[in-house]
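Suppose you are handed a protein chain with no further information: no name, no annotation, nothing but its sequence. What can you learn? This example shows the usual starting point.
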Amino acid sequence: MATEGIQINDFTGGLNYRADAYQLADNESPDLLNVDVDPRGGFSQRTGFSDYNSAAIGGIGADAFAPSRAFAWDGNARQLLLSANNKVFWTEDGTFTDMGVTVNATYGAQFAPWHNSAVSYVYGSAGESNAVFKWNGTILNLLTSSGTGRWQATNVAGTHAPRCEHITTHADRVWAGYVHEWDGAAYTSYPDRIRFSQAGLPESWRELDYIDVVGGGRGITSIVSFGDQLLVFKPRAVFAVLGYDEDTFQLVQLTNQAGAVSPQAVAATERSVFFFSWPQGLFTWDGSSFTDLFSPMRPVLDSGDFNDTSLDGVYLSYVGRKVHLSLPVGIDPDSVEDYDQSGFSFDDDELKYDGAVRADVPTSTFVWDQTVGADGAWVRYRLADGYGFAGGADWVDASGLNIPVFLHPVKPWVLRAERDAYQDTIGGVTAPLESYYVTKWQDAGTTSLKKFWRRPQFLVRQLGEDTVIQVEVFHDWDRTATARTFTLDFTGAEFSGGYESWVQPDLGSDLVKGTNLGLANSVQLKVSGQAGKPWGVNGITYKFNPRRSRV
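A reasonable first move is to predict its three-dimensional structure. Written in structure tokens, the prediction is:
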């Protein structure tokens, strides 16, 4: 009987949790970890991350780090600002220094850069108990908190700003959201209020220059400048402030079906604004319409793997032209307790189960690359120690070097992406990555007919190093039992031609044969890499002989 074949050389569908075994496309995966999908079709292990700072930030203990955000400021000097542990730190070269400001804002300090021909500052929100701060790269100033007896007259400069949870720069003003105003005796909180400074005077605020944002749940969760719109996020709504001065400002509700859970869950780019809404998922706003990006990932939310008690562990960032959504799913890798231990018991939220503690900090980072496939593709990252990222930033240092950086959620380290590393180094400890890609089930279009699956061929990416790729085989839609395993021994080759040092050459691919997959109606493969070695696959060819059915 003739041997037939199925050739797969396009994996650009990425991760899809929503489709079942019968619905996945050939280019989609039901499960993958620490691999990237190439726009040209293949997949390969992600590169590693290593410590950017050489010492623990602020002398904070190994598991006591509580980061909020990183902010790349290109002001009087290029500095990376970091809000964490009720403080703000800054660096120009990887050595972080305490700025000297105290922050009690619920989600840490937020930053509003201000530039004109004469000065460059960054303003920061610090919450109800602390004044807005002003930083010029070397000197810190605390502004007088606005309120009764402290408002400025028209076109009169001041040294003031309202205390607030959120702050941003939009057009020619500084804006504050969720404000705390001095009433002559104490501070009164206005969770649904935004205020704006006078035009061109970021430290001059008038009493009547405010807008109360009604509806969408209690409390503004973020404010973001996007083109000619100031976007105002609430838990269940998004608004836009339109206009160019106090006489033309108008508030428009864009939706009352989705909002943002926190300022950590909003990321703005030059073309769109991404935001995570609970329990709907990830959306983007392009200035005229919303797009749901989370359809293939929605089972992560629907399964109840985490709930609204852990939304503080959601982080969203846009780094390296990719969206990074970090979620507290599954268990905390460092918190395990005996569920029979005295004083602990199961509860309605299943906070403790099977001897483990549900995570409330990110344990997986889901990465969406808009350049892959027709609609973008998802993959999943996890650091070698079991955590995801707590946000990140595109950071250009003083030498002009672009360094994508991410924050560890519990350890006082900023991590930088390393193009030529295939392990993670966190706090000086290097550990290998777990990386794998699971294919869709292949049944050759006949679910009920058994086939003898012969030796598959793998088009293995040539990445310059000897490596061993492990392949697990599953039969008949059963992932609980491995039917057989085999390895692909691959010999690396160096590039012999000359090329510019800044160009990474394509070393091509080699065809490597596996072993017979066995007799089954359908087969599925889990392809895994060798610890500490780069690996990738550009194509898989399945070969089989149909087994004749008996009537």
